[in-house]
């Protein structure tokens, strides 16, 4: 098999040369690193990574292949994929294909054979960087200029790119090992939940169904569809980009509905909820991307390990009197969950559905259900 060189060129001028193992071409985005040891297919298909080039810190990626059940959406959303060693011979009974073939089918440029530890240390020291990834160009000076010209995600509303085109009814529950299929639910008589789709992951929807909701997914800016559903509660999904870049009318809509409907926000949904009630958000140096983030619960005085994927956080410098901070990240003290002091409104920054990651926080869905019924 022909080995083709590929390059990752960062905005600071540094570059890494390795081997191409995905689609051929050139792509751009912001480089972030993910510390998860497994679950690369869920990471690849998470819409929250739209506009980013993801570096995996685990040394070997691809050894379990890919399969239809582990898709978190209908496609790969990230701009590029970087690993140390790409394993092209899957060894798992669930595999239906190899990672490299999957990336080629999805049109994703991928790079292997570089020192991902050195790249991760650079990002930790200097922060998230814009970059170009390519296997079709080798003019480093030209690629450096392209990297510096990449538009920062603060200047994009990426929700527009990932939200669904139309509303749909979701009835699929969690995976059943015995039947080796996702459990279908009968939703009649359940509280109706409207999910504002900012790039929602399928496993979040499955947990909401398994918890006992009748789940309806609505495009982010289609407020008329939301009204037609006439929901009993509202869910604000995960998604990509800077929360401060979304349209003002969405923030106003969230505030209006949250004041009369029980509401849960996850990840970007948490940030938009906070903005709607007067909080500010700010960019983290290199974000939280991985399945091993420790979170401290202030009330229960307990620690849970969580899966996370975000570049922005809610500003807790001046705690809003409407909300209390329920959980904080033990690594950097950032706010991990906020709860309204009088209304049934909850926002969490981590991913309680895991996918990939630990299930320490899955009880959150049941907590939300109690807020509704």
What does this protein structure show overall?
The chain is α/β, with parallel strands linked by helices. The protein folds into two domains: 5-151, Carbamoyl-phosphate synthase small subunit, N-terminal domain (Glucose Oxidase, domain 1, 3-Layer(bba) Sandwich), CATH 3.50.30.20; 159-372, Rossmann fold, CATH 3.40.50.880. It is built from ten helices and 21 strands. The chain has helices at 40-44, 99-106, 116-126, 140-148, 159-162, 202-211, 223-229, 248-258, 268-276, 363-372; strands spanning 5-10, 15-20, 26-34, 52-56, 60-61, 80-82, 85-86, 109-112, 129-134, 168-170, 172-176, 181-184, 192-197, 214-219, 233-236, 263-266, 281-297, 302-314, 323-329, 335-340, 345-348. It has a ten-stranded mixed β-sheet, sandwiched between helices. A seven-stranded mixed β-barrel has the order 1-2-8-6-4-3-9. The protein has a two-stranded parallel ribbon with strand order 5-7. Helix 8 crosses helix 9. It is globular and about 60 Å long. 48% of the residues are buried. The mean pLDDT is 95.
Question: In short, what is this structure?
Answer:
With 373 residues, the chain is an alpha/beta fold.
Distance between the termini: 59 Å
CATH superfamily membership of the largest domain: Class I glutamine amidotransferase (GATase) domain
- Helical region count? 10
Helix content: 10-25%
Strand order within the widest beta sheet: 10-14-13-15-16-21-20-19-17-18
Q: What is the CATH class designation of the largest domain?
A: Alpha Beta
CATH architecture of the largest domain: 3-Layer(aba) Sandwich
Number of strand segments:
21
| SS-derived structural category | alpha/beta
Count of structural domains: 2
Overall pLDDT: 95
Strand residue content: 25-35%
Largest beta-sheet characterization = 10 strands, mixed
User: What ranges have pLDDT less than 50 throughout 5 or more consecutive residues?
Assistant: none
- Rg, please? 20 Å
The coarse overall form would be: globular
